[in-house]
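User: Okay, second chain of the day. Same drill as before: sequence in, structure tokens out.
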Amino acid sequence: MSWKAKALCAAFGLAVLGGTGLYVKDMAYDYSDGTRTGTVFKLSHKGVLCKTWEGQMNMDGFGAVDGQRGQVTSAFDFTVMNKDLLPKFEEAERTHERVEITYRQVKWKLSCLQESDYVATDVKKVDGQGNAIPFIIALPPQGPKR
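Assistant: Same drill. Structure tokens below.
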């Protein structure tokens, strides 16, 4: 094998190792973390090769969208990787109680391990006393400039 071929193989190997290192770094270290509050309405075990637990939660708020005032809902997609949390999520889905989900967000994901960017790390019931109601603030539609 010539020195050029060896150098090319070494460069390719370093590129693969560097890419793998960056991927592992972003999976091991959280891109962001936080909490979301709402009602879990969907929890499913799905996948072809790897079965994952995927859920959705309604996050309710009040505001105006397209000039219509009233209740606005949006869905939050999450993945449950910790099997110890599954009974809590199943109970929250069954009872429709408001819960607070603590999550971590990953920058890149491996589709076999999770479908969502958000991985649930904890779930707690919300007692409803002293908790703020989330608001959605929408600006009024802008008309054409004259």
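The radius of gyration is 22 Å.

User: Thanks, on to the next one.
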